[in-house]
Design a protein that fits this description.
The structure is a homodimer. Chain A is of the alpha/beta class. Chain A has 15 helices and 14 strands. Chain A starts with a helix and ends in a 9-residue tail after the last helix.
Chain lengths: 407, 407
């Protein structure tokens, strides 16, 4: 089998790879066929009545998923574009931000604040650790002059597979007037997120995660308090200007030509999500996490994030001692056509990440784990073949979802 | 027929509209079925070997179309994102730009310069007029201290259907060291553009025009001289940062997750464009222009741009005296499912614009003109029915392309 696969996969005929891959990334994620078909519709006038209907319908759907009445803006960009929009629209040069980082995407907020001349206080955690809301509370309590205008934090830190406790972080803000800006790019519709109940002022998400469509759209929710900051903001922005986008939204338009085919896809995927129900979607992602963690545990590998803080969207696994994670990732791709992600920054070569979000069948995780077992074995790791797969199957058969797994 | 169409079109079943529309916009344009199929491929790892192969192949294709050896960067954004990238990466706050504007997109460069704190000299022309290279030459000659760091100009002004003479504008720069930044969003692969031969430093294009794919990608070429300016630039940018994008390009990646499905589409459409040949593509667009202009002339309507400066991508037509252009546009949409565009800014209600670029059959223009005739007649305009269509057919049958039309 290995020989056969290599024959086609390493050749020039890459279309073979497209058809047959098992994509276990924390984004891009797999696309449901009916979403693919929806995206294949003809182009229309992006300033016409049909586009308006689609845009409004999408925004209502996103509000349901975000559990918010806040305004929703949609930008044609990756999720990082949404992060930039948040920084550039609520922070003026010289304003102070509190950036809370426990991974590569937390660090991205630092880079964005630097690029837009924002002063920063920073709370850093080792990658793989969780944000401690107490640290935020203490920091804000010491900010007597209320110099800090906004707190920037990840809900799910995609680079490490750690889920931060947004409800607790929101409470930690207390009476401090700082806005709370949340990167929920990989967490939205995978983990519980209550934008209004928790008072989250700006929440950013992206299309290529639990929304089940290709990359290219970012989504931003903006609270009334955040809009006040937008009005005062003097930072440079045009493409990502909230005010301009808000004005066009009244007309059912975006200021600039949007990625129409992705809007078609999002309209369709939101219908699927409504049919399934948000509670069910969240349960499903919890189960994915449990499947992967049980299997990895059974194989004797260590995970970067301990269970209590583990993400329902992605699991980061440490490579066995003396083994480069890149060899595992390449082996799974080349021998079994299973696509997983590597580590970022200092974690490169040390971890591999199994994405488990969006349009996924639990049995695909079994398939992915079987490839992992086989590749680990080929690389010289002592593996009790079938042990990981069996652990995964038990979770699936047991229907365990949100509960903790007895390892 | 009218009754029947209205029955389905004004109802809620908008999918009917998608299937049946004749899209005559200056973007988004129609998508070839094989491009649509290519876009329907599964998602892949955007940092993996297949994505790298696609990105490099696309960039080579774009270089051929742009006739350049300059670096090409691709951003997930509308064309305006590419315009912002040009401003934010080569101009520092306080630098002076010369913005040359003869329409709504020229004015967009003004807004971008304002947003990024760039000082501006402005040369304005009435909308519908062409840029006079002599004005640029005179202005730059008077800039004795070489304070002007860059000249910003449109190749094709999409809002008015005027094609500016980029070769002459480039020559007008003479020995002045200012960079030349060209918005070629709607002109690339519709009108002759020689990036290297004409020394164009930054050229911006978009996906939803002659590239024949949906909106969502902007393309920017950057000359070595422009890269020098990028190095010195202190303006705020992150998502659109050329330096970061250049570093990732070396790896065959983009800094942030790209709109993969659009990359698949662009890969396919560039193959089609190579098969057709750039010369043929340009001839075809010239013919479209001639078809539309002959027909409109035959109907006794006036065009905004005179023939010598007219665009091969879009034709702006003045509404007959006392008639609102919006009524014509709505009539064509509601009664015949033909989609054309309106005027922008002060031209709203005064002109309608027929787009003729990308994946288009000349006979679709005949169809569109027949709808125009009929709607004009319904609105009370004296129309000699069939006269516009006949004029169009003569051009098509005669195979006239680049030559001027005898009206």
């Amino acid at each position: 089998m290995k020989q056969n696969l290599k024959f086609t996969l390493r050749g020039e005929n890459f279309s073979t790879m497209w058809e047959k891959q098992i994509l276990l990334l924390p984004g891009p994620t797999q696309i449901p066929p009916r979403v693919m078909r929806a995206m294949s519709r003809e182009q229309i006038n992006h300033r016409g009545p049909v586009a308006r209907k689609i845009l409004f319908e999408i925004i209502e759907g996103i509000k349901e998923i975000m559990r918010t009445e806040n305004d929703i803006l949609i930008f044609t960009s990756s999720g990082t574009g949404g992060m930039e929009a948040a920084v550039a629209n609520i922070m003026s040069p010289g304003d102070k931000a509190l950036v809370v980082s426990n991974g590569a995407f937390g660090d991205r907020f630092k880079k964005l604040c630097q690029a837009f001349n924002i002063e920063m206080d920073v709370i850093d955690y080792p990658w793989g650790e969780v944000v401690d809301p107490q640290n935020i509370e203490d920091h804000l309590k010491n900010d007597h002059g209320h110099k800090i205008k906004a707190v920037f934090v990840q809900h799910n830190e995609t680079s490490t597979g750690v889920l931060n406790d947004m409800e607790a972080i929101s409470k930690a803000r207390g009476e401090h007037p700082a806005l709370l800006v949340v990167d929920a790019i990989s967490s939205l519709a995978a983990a519980e997120l209550q934008v209004d109940k928790w008072g989250l002022d700006v929440v950013i998400s992206g299309s290529q995660k639990a929304f089940m469509i290709p990359p290219g759209l970012s989504v931003v929710s903006i609270s009334p308090r955040a809009w006040e900051a937008v009005k005062r903001c003097t930072n440079s922005r045009f493409y990502f200007d909230f005010t301009l986008a808000g004005e066009y939204l009244e007309l059912g338009q975006t200021p600039f030509t949007p990625a129409l085919s992705l809007l078609y896809g999002l309209q369709e995927s939101l219908k699927m999500m409504r049919d399934e129900g948000l509670e069910n979607i969240l349960k499903r992602h919890s189960q994915y996490r449990n499947i992967v963690r049980a299997a990895v545990n059974a194989l004797g590998l260590e995970m970067l994030a301990r269970e209590e803080i583990s993400s329902p969207a992605v699991t980061a696994v440490k490579a066995p001692e003396g083994m480069n994670a890149g060899d595992i990732i390449n082996g799974m791709l080349e021998d079994y056509n299973v696509v997983i992600a590597g580590g970022q920054g200092n974690l490169r070569g040390k971890i591999f990440r199994i994405g488990h979000l969006g349009y996924m069948d639990p049995l695909e995780l079994v398939a992915g784990i079987s490839a992992l077992e086989s590749v680990l074995s080929s690389l010289g790791q002592p593996v009790d073949m079938g042990k990981g797969v069996t652990a995964a199957m038990k979770i699936i058969k047991g229907g365990k979802s949100c509960e903790s797994i007895d390892n």
